[in-house]
Amino acid sequence: MNSIAHWIGGAERAGESGRVSPVFNPATGEQIAEVALASAAEVAGAVAVAKEAVAEWRAASLSKRSAVLFKFRELLAERSGELAAIVTTEHGKVLADAAGEVARGLENVEFATGIPNLMKGSFSEQAATGVDVYSIRQPLGVVAGITPFNFPAMVPLWMCATAIAAGNTFVLKPSEKDPSAALFLARLWKEAGLPDGVFNVVHGDKEAVDAILAHPDIAAVSFVGSTPIAKYIYETGTAHGKRVQALGGAKNHMVVLPDAELDAAADAAISAGYGAAGERCMAISVVVAVGDIADPLVDAIAARLPKVKIGDGADPSSEMGPLISAQHRDKVAGYIEAGASEGAKIVADGRDISEMSGFFLGPTLLDNVNPSMTVYTDEIFGPVLSVVRVDTYAEALELINSNEYGNGTAIFTRDGGAARQFQFDVNVGMVGVNVPIPVPVAYYSFGGWKASLFGDTHMYGPDGIHFFTRSKVVTSRWPDPGTSTVDLGFPQTR
Question: Widest CA span of the chain, in angstroms?
Answer without folding.
Answer: 90
